[in-house]
Design brief:
It is a single chain. The protein is α/β, with parallel strands linked by helices and 684 residues long. A six-stranded antiparallel sheet has the order 12-11-16-15-14-13. It starts with a strand and ends in a 9-residue tail after the last helix. The model is unreliable at 354-359 and 680-684 (pLDDT under 50). Residues 115-185, 234-285 form the PAS domain. Keywords: ATP-binding, DNA-binding, Nucleotide-binding, Transcription, Transcription regulation. This is PAS domain S-box-containing protein.
């Protein structure tokens, strides 16, 4: 190590002092200056001395280097006497050159620092990220924008391989090919998407120095573009839906000016876009008020408004609603229905209902009117029966609705997807009924099956089972006990899985006492008895039944009757209805027929003469008022009707017994019952 003495520590000496302090092989032993305020003395600290003569004399060994920086010749000459063979004396001129070189270096460093700071300031002020790599693919520079985009600090990136920071970086490839890559998309591991341009760093002489990339974060731009694309797609889809919709649609803005219509609207109104778009909302109305304007004023929807539109004054039904975006009213949209089309659909609905009425098991519990406590209890029992795999016996007077409940039980059961077959046991002769129920082995193959086989897995409704002969009762009992039948003329048992629902208006208990009905069959059928009260015992049902039947009769007769006046309804509630619901339907039907086309409500004058309950009530046994004479045929019909009814009541509605007492055939009895609206059960 070289020991150094610096004489004179003004500006030049101070500069040399700073330089030597940075060199490990040089040890500045002392700094001398006669000027106590020289800047180098303070910098040297405890190494500072005022005079060099006494200091050099006191040293045991010579100084290796003496630097004279005062520039004074006498000082330089004086220092020569202290120079030894091994020591070096550097004159002030050389020190001055060193000082100038150091100043120039500092100036250059300052300038370079300023340029670097300016470059960094410039690069950090741009929003695009920048990464520079060297020949070894190590990152040498990143700007602040790159830090923000990559979510990494500069210290975490500089000095690392670029592929460690960006795994899909193409900068090494760009450096290899020396070809630019402009505006290339890239997905970063942090989920961001960027567009990057990569450029090789090549000098004018063709020397490769590295490569750099400039990139822009386009994540938000892409998301916004996707949202715009989605919105545009949604808009196109909505427009396509509106244009292809068969519903006529009209849209206006918040000022009530037309924005949009579809072809269906043009078809109904006969108006083109040029006649609607940009025009007031009233432009299409020929009669009535604008529902668009009403919606814009009230901000509330409108339903079922009738008006006439277009030059042809087409009768339409309008539903309109406000268009609200974040609570701000933006317009109104209306859907227009052609009433002529609705009327056509109503006609089709009537036809469909007529077809449904002809299908098997067409009624459900929802079709049965039950407002009275008695009928509600009956339906609850029937619903239990529907879910329980037992035979059900429906009991009640003729016309109370036994068949409706039988239909409902089938449709509520797990057999609803199979057949429901109804048989009126009193409507056929015994031999024909036996073949119909059990099949005929002697008949043609296509007609050998009986109704028990046809109803396999389903339900068989035996109506008027009280009129079944004792012999046929035994065969029905065999089916219930063994789940098999034997065809007429056959011997082979055929297994069947049938649920039997039976109904009667006969007093079976009395019939058993008179040996006309088998006890064992009764107990077999009576596992779940359901009593249906007559209409006179459930007057609470008369009002809703009346409304229901009027709706049905309106469809059948093509009328628009709205209901029954209070006084006429009171007359109906006071009547006993021997024929029950069927008779109520007959009375209402006759009343509607007698009404004028412009009348909407049934009054007491429209009601037909209600049936008398006994012979003593018949008008034909009373003195006629004002010499009015009842026509003979009317009197005979009334007498016949009352006689048949009372005979039926006395015989507990056993029709075979009634026919014998009246000395007429069973077929003739059915004819007369139908004539007087006491006919075969349609809905028992």
């Amino acid at each position: 190590m070289q020991n150094v003495l610096i004489v004179g520590v003004g500006q030049g000496g101070t500069a040399i002092l700073k330089l030597f302090e940075q060199i490990d092989m040089i040890n500045v032993q002392a700094v001398a200056d006669i000027n106590q305020h020289a800047p180098g003395l303070k910098l040297a600290g405890n190494k500072s001395i005022n005079t060099y003569e006494s200091y050099i004399d006191a040293l045991n060994e010579p100084i290796d280097i003496i630097v004279e920086t005062t520039g004074k010749e006498e000082v330089f000459n004086d220092l020569k006497k202290y120079k030894t063979r091994r020591s070096v004396l550097i004159p002030g001129t050389v020190a001055h050159v060193i000082y100038n070189l150091l100043n120039e270096k500092e100036s250059l460093l300052d300038q370079l620092k300023k340029e670097t700071d300016s470059r960094d300031l410039l690069l950090n002020s741009i929003h695009d990220g920048m990464i520079v790599i060297d020949l070894d693919h190590n990152i040498t520079y990143v700007n602040e924008a790159a830090e923000n985009i990559l979510n990494l600090n500069r210290d975490e990136m500089v000095g690392h391989l670029v592929t460690e920071i960006i795994s899909d970086s193409h900068l090494p490839n760009v450096m290899k090919t020396r070809k630019k890559e402009l505006n290339q998309p890239l997905n970063l591991s942090n989920g961001k998407r960027i567009i990057t341009t990569r450029i090789p760093l090549v000098t004018e002489q063709g020397e490769l120095l590295g490569a750099f990339a400039v990139f822009k974060d386009i994540t938000e731009v892409v998301e916004l573009a996707e949202e715009i694309t989605d919105l545009k797609n949604i808009q196109n889809m909505l427009e396509a839906i509106i244009q292809s919709s068969e519903e006529a649609i009209s849209v206006v803005d918040e000022h009530g000016e037309g924005l949009l219509i579809n072809p269906a609207y043009t078809k109904i109104t006969g108006l083109k876009e040029s006649e609607i778009i940009g025009k007031p909302a009233t432009a299409d109305i020929s009669e009535g008020e604008s529902m668009h304007m009403q919606v814009l004023e009230t901000r509330r929807p409108v339903r079922g408004a009738r008006m006439k539109v277009g030059p042809l004054k087409r009768d339409v039904l309008v539903n309109a609603a406000p268009i609200l975006v974040d609570g701000v009213l933006k317009g109104s949209v209306a859907i227009i229905h052609d009433l002529s089309e609705i009327e056509s659909l109503t006609s089709e609905l009537k036809k469909a209902r007529q077809i449904i009425r002809n299908l098997e098991a067409k009624y459900t519990f929802d079709d049965i009117i039950a407002q009275s406590t008695e009928m509600k209890l009956t339906l609850e029992q029937a619903k239990v029966g529907a879910k329980t795999p037992v035979t059900v016996l429906l009991r009640g007077e003729s016309g109370t609705g036994k068949e409706l409940i039988a239909h409902a039980i089938h449709n509520e059961s797990n057999r609803k997807h199979y057949k429901f077959i109804r048989v009126n046991c009193a409507s056929m002769e015994e031999e024909a009924l036996e073949k119909a129920l059990f099949g005929d082995e002697t008949g043609p193959p296509e007609k050998q099956k009986g109704l028990f086989e046809e109803a396999n897995n389903g339900s068989l409704f035996l109506d008027e089972i009280g009129d079944l002969s004792v012999e046929l009762q035994a065969r029905v009992l065999h089916v219930l006990e063994n789940q098999e039948i034997i065809r007429v003329g056959g011997r082979k048992p055929i297994p069947v899985n049938v649920r039997v629902i039976s109904a009667t208006n006969v007093n079976l208990e009395r019939a058993m006492m008179e040996k006309e009905f088998r006890e064992d069959l009764f107990y077999r059928l009576n596992r779940l008895p359901i009593m249906i009260a007559p209409l006179r015992e459930r007057t609470d049902d008369i009002d809703p039944l009346t409304q229901h039947l009027i709706t049905k009769l309106n469809e059948d007769y093509g009328r628009n009757v709205r209901g029954v006046k209070t006084k006429a309804l009171g007359i109906l509630k006071e009547y006993d209805f021997p024929g029950n619901v069927r008779e109520l339907e007959n009375i209402l039907g006759r009343a509607i027929i007698s009404m004028g086309q412009n009348e909407s409500y049934i009054n007491e004058k429209h009601l037909p003469a209600l049936r008398k309950h006994s012979f003593k009530d018949l008008d034909l046994f009373k003195e006629p008022e004002n010499s009015e004479v009842i026509p003979l045929q009317d009197a005979l019909d009334e007498f016949e009707k009352q006689l048949i009814l009372e005979t039926l009541e006395k015989n507990n509605y056993i029709k075979s017994k009634t026919a014998k007492q009246l000395n007429i055939s069973l077929r003739n009895l059915y004819y007369k019952m139908e004539k007087h609206n006491l006919g075969k059960d349609v809905q028992s």
